[in-house]
Amino acid sequence: MALAINVSAQNGNALDQLKADPRKAYGNDYPYPHYIVDLTKAPDGYRPFYISHYARHGSRYYWNAFLYQELDSLLSKAHKMQVLTPEGEGFYEKFMAAKDELKTGVSELTQLGWEQHQKIARTMYNNFPEVFEKGGNVLAISSLTGRCVLSMSAFCQELVQCNPAIEVREQSSRFTLDGVVPTDRQNPKRRDYPKSTPKWESHRDQFHYEDHLGEKVLARVFKTTEGLPGNMHHVASNLINLYTSLPSIGHDGMMGNIITDQEIADRWEMTNLGSYSWVFGPRYDMIPILRDILAKADAVINGTSDHIADLRFGHDTCIGPLTVLMGINGADTDPEDPNEVKNIYQNWQTCKASNIQLVFYRGEKGADDVLVKMLFNGLEAKLPVPTDCYPYYKWSDFKQFYQNRCDEIK
After folding, report:
1. How far is Cα 241 from Cα 395, in angstroms, rounded to an integer?
2. CA-closest candidate to residue 221, choices 84, 117, 128
3. Which residues pair with 109 in a beta bridge?
4. Cβ(144)–Cβ(177) under 8 Å?
5. C-alpha span between 64 and 71 (Å, rounded)
6. What pLDDT was estimated at residue 169?
7. CA distances from 85 to 89, 172, 204, 264, 366 (A)
8. Which 3 state secondary structure label does DSSP give 118?
9. Sign (positive/negative) of CA torsion 18, 21, 22, 23?
10. Element holding 236 (H helix, E strand)
11. pLDDT per position as a tens digit, 365-407
């Protein structure tokens, strides 16, 4: 089960957070952390009545079968050639014992991934009981990918366990892809949006880091790499990627001391730069998701929808760029100095089961008296929308700001 961590662990800058939890350096391989949070009380007279949500699937086996296949061939040959170090032999034995499971499970949701969404759902229910206490209708939509469908099922089953009066409609369909994975080639509404490059890439020379982890890892596994198949730079990347995936699949310790969390943390700022470019470039592709959020919330507020929640389950390739599109915690700042990127985006924000929750509160001054609050991975988040009552934003301001942002891109 996932470990509950007090929100105080989130205090301080990115490097301080890494010191407190070096596994955050796993980036989008980081298993979801369940924070214990005291949320800011709503202004007097406001009660939550609706939640709009987007989540990445939970922890899974590695997404690409080639990683397991290539390591199987490589380690088998190295063992036969007797060029594995003692540490490498220990890794070989553990990998071979698990390889059938790994190859069969490739890309599939793990037990931990299921449990992550169960716990997120129960936390949502407990944080906002007013939304769910009378039951009501919930629509959940998912990517067509199995790990997302199962993440949706885990979440929705837990909500109904909390209150059987909740009616959930689950849908994994080409009809709803625009609201959850608009870039899917099966999406009948799919369109191309402009791509862009973050400014830091024009100033790469301002960032200095020499990365020798790959060389160290190879030396710890192999006495020599001569005669072994494959590009050794690629092999080292495979080994590092396997290491950061192990906590999600229940195989911590498989690689012994071949890599340490601290070594992954030491190179994090470099890998985070690449992650920022990866989420920044396609941010406009997520405009359909943002429009779906706005339209469904508007329908609830004006009374044409009876949903108490709209849930979406997709991928890191969606929630990462959506984070930038919405400017969550300043992710749209686009600094020129590469050394500043770590202060506005940290790739662990796009962790397994990462999620956005927009919680809507109705006041006492009529149907248009609505506030909205953003939770990002369970923590109250800042948006680039003007407000005088953070972490709450007037729905009218929120809606206008993001409609304008969407309309700017043709």
Report:
1. 42
2. 84
3. 60
4. yes
5. 12
6. 98
7. 6, 47, 37, 22, 72
8. helix
9. negative
10. helix 232-249
11. 887 899 999 999 999 999 999 999 999 999 999 999 999 999 9
Are the beta carbons of 325 and 408 closer than 8 angstroms?
no
Decide: 360 and 51 in contact? Cβ < 8 Å: yes
When the pLDDT of each residue in the chain is averaged and rounded to a whole number, the result is 96
Q: Which two tokens stand for residue 371?
A: 């506030």
Mean per-residue pLDDT for 27-55?
A: 96
Query: Chain-centre distance of CA 151, in angstroms?
Result: 13
256: left (phi over 0), alpha (psi -120 to 50) or beta: left
Residues 98-141: tens digit of each pLDDT: 999 999 999 999 999 999 999 999 999 999 999 999 999 999 99
Q: Which pair of structure tokens corresponds to residue 202?
A: 């024009």
The one-letter code for the residue type at 187 is: N
Question: In whole angstroms, what is the distance from residue 84 CA to residue 88 CA?
Answer: 5
Token look-up 């036969």 returns: 80
Q: Which residues pair with 314 in a beta bridge?
A: 56
The amino acid at 409: I
Distance in angstroms (rounded) separating the CA atoms of residues 235 and 229 = 9
Rg over CA atoms, the chain: 22
C-beta atoms surrounding 407 within 10 Å: 10
pLDDT of residue 8: 45
Q: Which residues contact 304 (CB under 8 A, 6 or more apart)?
A: none
The string of pLDDT tens digits covering residues 247-280 is 999 999 999 999 999 999 999 999 999 999 999 9
Give the 3-state secondary structure of residue 36.
strand
The answer to whether 355 touches 53, Cβ cutoff 8 Å, is yes
Q: Which position has the token pair 């939550």? A: 48
